[in-house]
Amino acid sequence: MATNTFTRWSVIASGEGGGRVASQFFERAENPGIDERILVMNTNRSDLRNTIDRLEEHIGPSDDEDQLMGNHAIEFGSQAGAGNFFPNGEACAREDIDRIVNNISNLAGNTDAFMHIATLGGGTGNGSIPYIIDQFKNGLPDAVDENVEDWMGSVIHAAFGIWPYYYEQPQRHFNAVCGLSRLLRTGNERQNADMVLLASNSHLEDSDSEGDDQYGSINNAIIRAIDLMIGAGRETRSVIDIKDYVTIPSQMDTYHFTPAVSTGLDGSVFELEYMLEKASENAYVPMDVETTQAAYAIVRAPEAMIDNDEISEPDVYDAFRDWTSSHGLNVAGQASLTPKRGRGSDVDVLLLLGGFSLDPLLDHSWDDFEMLGESLSGSGSGKSKLTRAELDRIVSNLEEYADHNIGK
């Protein structure tokens, strides 16, 4: 990793849904470890135009749209969109992989970790992100500069996949199941992303919001979780960082996670174990907490509370141990206390829950996936064709992984 005092992250988002999330990062006054290393990608110029408009809302109008496109956006592939068929999104990324790598290296040189973001129900992000991660890790083009290849070879790849609403059409649920499998494992059955984070639109839905506000509420929840996760690694001593998140879970083959978040808890009133329990009730996907096999707890408290010893790292460790014990969990995991500016007593808690049973999430999509599988295998043409063998491999990879992660 780079020798900075904190991990340098870059955000790579593909498709309109992923771009919608990424553009909201620019609303933040401070992105811990990210700064402005944010790139949005799309195969459709009109969708990319929508994302550029959102970027300009957050960073101000640009006199030079070409410069804004060059710094933060890229149109890839020769197709005008992926047509909600993930093989098209992958084919577009394969067609332009050299240019994609060059754009990312110009934006994110010497980055330590990538956060890839895609909505799993679509065709563009869901098709391109798993392929791009695989290429970065295992098969960069021959034309890539040696220096770029050296630093990319050590980069950690986290992926945030967003599950479609349960009521959406079967095609989106077919895509989602395929996208999850492809993020987890490549065609040759090896691990793809180093960490796969999951959120479900329906599970995060805010009943008081509608339309774009609904997406805004969900996207803000996702960004809040990423901020807490990345913020814990701002200093290199006595903290949880991305290496901790990925090393042991990868060895255990339990590297899918979901955030569980509770913020604004009064640290002068509530016990830490209660705060952890409140966070665990707010997991971003449907799940049974007691099937968790890996867990990380990040408690963020005002600097003044930490300086005054109102809350300490031993307190956090003890509360985490008590919380896992209360759920009968014998998990791989760590806990950490990280400061935030200000006084007051508002405490934020992030639990990263990993290796849990995927059945509650997949149950919402599996019937649609099976219904469409027969008709879609063999569809498409050329590089965008989904063969029966490829679909069978997607199924077997996911089933083998999920069977290993069924909890106790």
TrEMBL record:
Highest rank taxon of the organism: Archaea
InterPro entries: Tubulin/FtsZ_GTPase_sf, Tubulin_FtsZ_GTPase
Molecular function as annotated in GO: GTP binding
Membrane spanning residue stretches: none
Domain Tubulin/FtsZ GTPase: 11-206
Pfam family, one: Tubulin
Official protein name in the record: FtsZ family protein, noncanonical
Organism: Natronomonas moolapensis (strain DSM 18674 / CECT 7526 / JCM 14361 / 8.8.11)
